[in-house]
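User: I'm putting together notes for a lab meeting next week and I want to include a structural view of one of the chains we've been expressing. I don't have a solved structure, so I'd like a prediction I can at least talk through. The sequence is below, exactly as it appears in our construct file.
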Amino acid sequence: MELKQKGTALHAATVVGDTVGDPFKDTSSVAMNPIIKFTTLFGLLAVELAVSLTAQRGAVLSHLLAGLFLLVSIVFVYRSFYNMRIEGAAQ
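Assistant: Thanks for the context. Below is the predicted structure for the 91-residue chain, given as structure tokens.
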């Protein structure tokens, strides 16, 4: 098989297939990197805070703060994902 196929229909189909599959593959990973680092750092800091608060003041305060943070995160998830849906698109 000859590899010099540039300018043929086979080459055109290959190029179109490569770009149509995932046009954001080069940009999404760059944008996700800071988000992953921030959530990892925030998780480590939250665990350290929970452990130190439990040792100093008992588990009740840690459980109350965990519940408060859970409620705040649920509000943010609802507002960012479910509140931005386009109505009538899934018919």
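A couple of points you could mention at the meeting. Helices lie at 9-21, 25-57, 59-80. The chain has a mean pLDDT of 77.

User: Perfect, that's what I needed.
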